[in-house]
Amino acid sequence: MQRAAVFIDIGYFGKVLKYCFDEPRIDFEKFSDYLCEDKERLRTYVYDCPPYVSQEPTDEEERRQENHERFASSLTKLHRFEVRLGKTAHNAVTGEFYQKRVDVLLTVDLMRMAWDRQIGTAILVTGDSDFVPVIESVKQAGVVVKLFYRDCYDNQGRAMTRTLDELLEVCDECIVIDNALIEDSAF
Known about the structure:
Blueprint: E1 3-9, H1 10-21, H2 28-36, E2 40-48, H3 59-76, E3 81-85, E4 87-90, E5 97-100, H4 102-115, E6 121-125, H5 132-140, E7 144-149, E8 152-153, E9 159-161, H6 165-170, E10 173-176, H7 179-185
């Protein structure tokens, strides 16, 4: 049996669940196994950033941090799951928050597993075209790359997740995350 690994950008997948499916509770182990189909799931990697916490945390910041820790801990208890955490940074000038290191963590794991021939299939849940170069590289290592994605819009029609053609063109298979997949993976 061929082995596969699942790589989930939880920031992206969370937006898909929020804007396309009204935030259902997902059984991540069932979801990952479904994505692997008949392949052995070597491991699922979930990439995320803890929420920003200021030097003197507010009650809200502490609550968000505790909720995130519970979520990440619940994932690490699942069969063959790893959680990789980046950092959340804050731009004091613009007030915006942004993720750091998440793409690099995913890239390192994907490259290592592909070039060490640990997997024959890489299953990505993301919409980030920054991964195009790493996808091209792992395909050269003989790995089949499957992308699960969904473009979602808010009530005003603004794109909340948008998968660029460049990403869709480089992957071997592109599958839209549909209602049936979410329903089959929900608690």
